Amino acid sequence: MKNQHRQQKLLNQLGAGALVIVATNLEQLRNGDVHYPFRPHSDFWYLTGFTEPEAVAVFSQEDYTIFLREKDQKREIWDGERLGVDAAPEILKVNQAYPIGALKTQLPQLIKNATTVYYDFKPCALDDTIMECLATTKTQSLGKYLHEMRLIKDDDEIALMQKSADISVETHQMAMQQAKPDLFEYEVGSIFDGNFRRYNAEHAYTPIVAGGKNGCVLHYIKNNQVLNDGDLLLIDAGCEVQGYAADITRTFPINGTFSNAQRQIYQIVLDAQLAAIAAIKPNEVITTPHKIASQIIQQGLINLGILAKNGDLKQFYMHGTGHWLGMDVHDVGRYQQGNQDRKYEVGMVTTVEPGIYIRKSDKINPKYWDIGIRIEDDVLITKGGNRVLTQGLAKEIDEIEGLMR
Ligand code: GLY
Ligand code: MN
Ligand code: MN
Is 155 among the catalytic positions? Predict the structure, then answer.
């Protein structure tokens, strides 16, 4: 079983006497009797494969225990079936299962013989109980080890990420073909809602559907404005398949044709993105893509008279060029190794997402005002260099204009 293989691999790094405790999320109230759709905690999901809320797994070289919700006929009529304590050993391959309510009494027994307990405190109601039980025990960070494992994706994980990339690519393409002046941002956004669900996928994060100047707001999620002829549309949207995310941004003209000013800025971002991707390969330091993208954007903006020679690039490019991608959109895994920037390794997945954002300013030619452009793809590091998981999606100017005709 995949999850137990991962447990074993983790335990092998932790040495004799190690005990791991990992908890999942609780359901969160949205309002009244209504809950948000439940999403398991990524660490717990990765190690157990179990997707019910309110559960804790405890495992060592010798033993695997799960605490989970009990069967409850009344609750199951309202909320659906639960695995329950009796069925858990067979289905989850645990040695024993207890009701989650027994955590406080049973956990001290399980901890008793451990040399070191590995656990990460997170804001979760189960924390208090676990913390009480751990009061006198030597505890270490689990994430320090687990997150390095999660950073390197195996073939099954890459297949799921390719699937979420493919669905997201297809949907961005639909959005490019259907967007037109006078639609509202949420109307284009609904293409993503519908097509993701059609594949039983979810949004991996709240999408950004930003027309015109809204594209300059980095975390714009209102998505409620009308799309104007002559403006650009920036869409940052990606789905999640069985817990694995895609993260894609495209920016294109709402009327299907880039203006000259938009074309100039777009080409700079595209050149920066392509050069940054080309640099990604095993053993390259992970800061290289940002350095390359920043240089190209800086020079491009200087050439157009938008940025002074000694000006601050951060006025127009104020975020990083990438982040780890996996079960979390901003995935776990360190960016540094000791004091040094780490290097890419086979099986890592990073986004590459340079952008330029030009707000109204007396110092800038008005033809460039309110242009916000980001281009984002998902890149797997391979033996030979890299593979762009989101390769299929148009990003050259001619390609985009052709697709929109
Ligand atoms: N969609 C979040 C990000 O691009 O980082
Ligand atoms: Mn991203
Ligand atoms: Mn994104």
Answer: no
Instruction: Tell the residue nearest (CA) to atom 5 of ligand 1.
Output: 330
374 assigned to active site: yes
From the candidates 54, 185, 328, 353, which is the catalytic residue?
Answer: 353
Q: Which residues pair with 140 in a beta bridge?
A: 118
pTM: 0.96
11 alpha-carbon distance from chain centroid: 26
pLDDT band, very low/low/confident/very high, at 134 (cuts 50, 70, 90)? confident
Percent over 70 (pLDDT), the chain = 99
Residue 124: what pLDDT?
67
Using the mean position of ligand 1's atoms as its centre, give its distance from the Cα of residue 125 in Å.
Answer: 28
Burial class (CB in 10 A: 0-12, 13-18, 19+), 194: exposed
Name the helix (H) or strand (E) containing 30: strand 29-31
Please give the full DSSP string across 259-306, using - where no structure is assigned. Answer: -HHHHHHHHHHHHHHHHHHHT--TTSBTTHHHHHHHHHHHHHHHHTTS
Sign of CA pseudo-dihedral 359, 362, 366, 368:
negative
The neighbourhood of ligand 2, an ion, using CB within 5 A, equals 247, 351
Q: Note whether 2-150 and 152-404 share their fold.
A: no
Annotated active-site residue 33? The verdict is yes
pLDDT at 125: 65
Query: Residue 130 pLDDT more than 90?
Result: no
Residue 321 has pLDDT above 70, yes or no: yes
DSSP letter (8 states) at residue 212: G
The domain spans of the chain are 2-150, 152-404
Catalytic residue among 46, 118, 317, 357: 357
Residue 128: the pLDDT is 80
Which CATH architecture fits 152-404?
Answer: Alpha-Beta Complex (3.90)
pLDDT band at 6 (very low <50, low <70, confident <90, very high): very high
Whole-number mean pLDDT of the chain?
96
The verdict on domain 2-150 having CATH code 3.40.50.970 is no
Q: Which amino acid is at 246?
A: A
Task: Render pLDDT for 147-169 as a digit per residue (tens, 0 to 9).
Answer: 999 999 999 999 999 999 999 99
Most informative mutation of 192, 240, 351, 377 for ligand 1 (most atoms within 8 A of CB): 351
Known catalytic membership, residue 166:
no
Q: Which atom of ligand 1 lies closest to the CA of 374?
A: 4
Atom of ligand 1 nearest to the CA of 323: 5
